[in-house]
Specification:
Elements lengths: L1 H48 L4 H8 L9 H4 L4 H10 L4 H19 L7 H16 L11 E5 L26 H8 L3 E6 L11 E2 L3 E2 L15 H8 L5 E6 L5 H7 L2 E4 L27 E6 L2 H11 L2 H6 L10 H6 L7 H9 L25 E4 L10 H16 L3 E4 L14 H9 L6 H7 L9 H7 L6 H10 L3 H9 L5 H24 L4 E5 L11 H8 L1 H9 L3 E8 L22 H10 L6 E7 L5 H17 L22
Parallel strand pairs: 1-2, 1-5, 8-9, 8-10
Antiparallel strand pairs: 3-4, 5-7, 6-7, 6-11, 10-12, 11-12
Length: 658
């Protein structure tokens, strides 16, 4: 009996001590997160007392020339329009920055989308930009423009929390490369935006800054992981921002918040100075990698930011980057709306990008600008998730718009896209590779003792299924009519080196089939849904994310540049989800995930819906040029961003304080 008691004591006492230490650490981190939020709120209050809130802005404007645009007009201008106005002398950087600071303060309070808010320092920096302009010392193409930065990219004097309490109160000594290059080009980083804990769900929530809401519906998420950026830019709290994308983290919030976003080819932009939500501050998983990119309200603004980031200054700061400067002529050549026939011909003759497959589909007249026609491939569905009616209509309207402008459209079916081409396996391929460590191990380690957010609970439980049980559980789910759940269960779990390599081989085979098909059909760009559903209700991403986001995962898997732009909004008649478990097949079957999609779609009327434009790897200029052409075609057809109302939250009333 004494021996048994001693053994129990030897086992139980250390375990109990570990539990107590873990609980104490969680309490410490919870208080640390709360203290950081209080620090941000105190800084916001100081900025308001300094006259940087909306009421203070109106008082300051009374002292300025009356010929200037109203603050309401200023915050709705694009980045290029703002820069043009500053270059023309009708606006100053201080005026523009004060307007966006005041609006960002309103938006941050209403949507909980802001992280740190160095507003006072930003206004001081804007005043310096005006002094430099008066002295004839322009820094670069972004001179005087305020920009927002995701709470993952390093900014001098600020934390990069990645939504983790353990990363608070660790201010960076210098800017990351992209922030530094933007600042050197004249930009004024003025606010940091919130992210989900661990950066790995299409929602934005953490113990520091709270849960961010969508500006079109406070009961819904702005997406993630760059959800704070999406909400702030969508609500006109920033003209242009820096996000990152490992599984749609730029394109998902851009789509859900009615703005534009672009994920370039991995390694086109520097990742130096962008943090990882892992214990080692880096990830050894290199097959599906995160990449930074711009978010804004027009494709021209995205291209402007890309042109600034793809410069010698970035290559000098990060020697790991291939030195591929931005080719603005290739961007122009890829968009007939931007270039004349002669300009496009000149670009082609000089060996600049001519579209996929070396020549695209195009010759002859056509297109919005009278240049060569583009050849668009169309992917209606990926074989995994049937898009909601509004998402299908957004793609239909885009196809009609580009066709009306004289471009060629090729419906891609059969072995090129969809289930037969392996696209339906993309979500499971993504899960297999990104989750190859098993048991959520790297994520749990990255928390450094913080409690895992409840929205991760479903994914965590699935990750903890023993590998020996996965085939049995998969077979049971198949028998119960849940084939997609079965596929995800089989795909998850820790991998041996051999199994990991096999997962990569399957992904590479899918990539080869699709990219070979692009070239065989001489496609300039691919059109497909941005997402399968509009913005989700809070917490629903825990189970719906692998469905609706499959159209985003696919292009991270294949390392293709891809961008999204708004097309329309959900109509009341489109709130009911009628999708099938097996898209493209005649039989009707609805699994549990269809039921969840139906629940997520209820009440979605009025939410923005986007289309996605995809290019070949390293054809970033051509992809953005094709996006610009789609944007112009939509505008000519009475669709696109200009037809989508400004979000209602928070209301923009220049005549009174927030």
């Amino acid at each position: 009996m004494m021996i048994t008691a001693a053994l129990l004591s030897a086992l139980v006492v250390p375990y109990a001590r570990r539990l107590r230490r873990g609980a104490a650490l969680r309490r410490t981190l919870t208080e640390r997160a709360a203290r950081k939020c209080r620090e941000r709120d105190a800084a916001r209050a100081r900025a308001a007392r300094a006259g940087l809130d909306w009421a203070g802005l109106l008082r300051w404007i009374d002292t300025q020339p009356k010929s200037r645009p109203s603050p309401q007009s200023i915050v709705q201008m694009s980045a290029r329009q703002l820069l043009d106005a500053m270059n023309a002398g009708t606006l100053t950087s201080e005026h523009v920055t004060r307007c966006f600071v005041a609006r960002a303060m309103q938006v941050g309070e209403a949507l909980q989308c802001n992280a740190e808010e160095p507003f006072e320092a930003a206004v001081t920096e804007a005043i310096l930009r005006d002094e430099e302009r008066r002295a004839g010392k322009l820094r670069g193409p972004l001179h005087g423009l305020p920009i927002s930065v995701k709470d993952q990219a390093n900014m001098k004097g600020c934390d990069s929390t990645c939504g983790l309490a353990c990363r608070t109160f660790e201010p960076k000594e210098s800017d990351g490369v992209l922030v530094a290059v933007a600042r050197a080009a004249g930009a004024v980083p003025f606010v940091r935006t919130s992210v989900p804990q661990l950066l790995m769900l299409p929602e934005t929530f953490n113990a520091i800054w709270g849960t961010a809401s969508n500006p079109y519906d406070l009961a819904r998420t702005p997406g993630g992981s760059s959800g704070g950026e999406g909400a702030l830019i969508g609500a006109r709290g920033s003209p242009l921002g820096l996000g990152t994308d490992v599984g749609g983290s730029i394109r998902i919030p851009a789509s859900m918040c009615g703005i534009s976003g672009f994920k370039p080819t991995t390694d086109r932009l520097s990742y130096k100075g962008i943090e990882s939500a892992r214990l080692q501050r880096g990830s050894g998983q290199k097959e599906v990698r995160s990449c930074p990119g711009p978010m804004g309200r027009s494709v021209d603004d995205l291209e402007l930011m890309m042109s600034v980031w793809c410069t010698p200054a970035a290559y000098d700061a990060d020697p790991t980057l291939p030195r591929v400067p931005w080719d603005h002529a290739a961007y122009l050549a890829a968009s007939p709306a931007l270039s004349s026939s002669s300009a496009a011909s000149s670009a082609q003759g000089s060996g600049l990008l001519r579209g996929f497959g070396g020549g695209g589909g195009g010759s002859g007249d056509g297109g919005a600008g009278g240049g060569r026609k583009l050849r668009f491939g169309v992917m209606r569905h990926d074989g995994w998730f049937e898009p909601a009616a509004a998402c299908e209509r957004a793609l239909d309207e885009t196809v009609r718009a580009v066709s009306a402008a004289g471009h060629e459209v090729v419906e891609l079916t059969g072995k090129l896209v969809g289930r037969d081409a392996g696209c339906a396996a993309a979500p499971c391929s993504y899960i297999a590779i990104v989750g190859a460590d098993g048991n959520f191990r790297c994520f749990i380690e990255g928390l450094e003792g913080e409690a895992l957010h409840p929205v991760y609970s479903f994914l965590y439980r699935v990750s903890m299924i023993p590998n020996w049980a996965r085939p049995l559980l998969g077979a049971l789910l198949d028998a119960l009519g849940q084939p997609r759940k079965a596929a995800m269960v089989r795909a998850g779990g820790g991998k041996s080196a051999y199994d990991y390599w096999m997962a990569i081989l399957r992904k590479d085979a899918m990539r080869k089939r699709l990219l070979d098909g692009f070239q065989e059909h001489r496609i300039d760009a691919l059109l497909c849904p941005a997402l399968g559903l509009p913005a989700l209700p809070h917490t629903m991403s825990r189970q719906v994310a692998p469905l609706t986001c499959s159209y985003a995962f696919l292009w991270n898997n294949l390392n293709c540049p891809a961008g999204t732009l708004p097309v329309t909004t959900v109509r009341e008649a489109e709130e009911a989800y009628r999708g099938n478990t097996y898209p493209g097949r005649g039989d009707v079957h609805r699994d549990d995930l269809c039921t969840l999609a139906e629940k997520a779609s209820a009440g979605s009327a009025g939410l923005p819906v986007s289309v996605q434009v995809v290019g070949l790897p390293w054809r970033d200029e051509a992809t953005l040029g094709a996006m610009r052409e789609v944007e112009q075609c939509l505008a000519a057809a009475g669709r696109g961003a200009a037809q989508i109302a400004m979000p209602p939250h928070p209301p923009l009333h220049p005549e009174k304080a927030a």
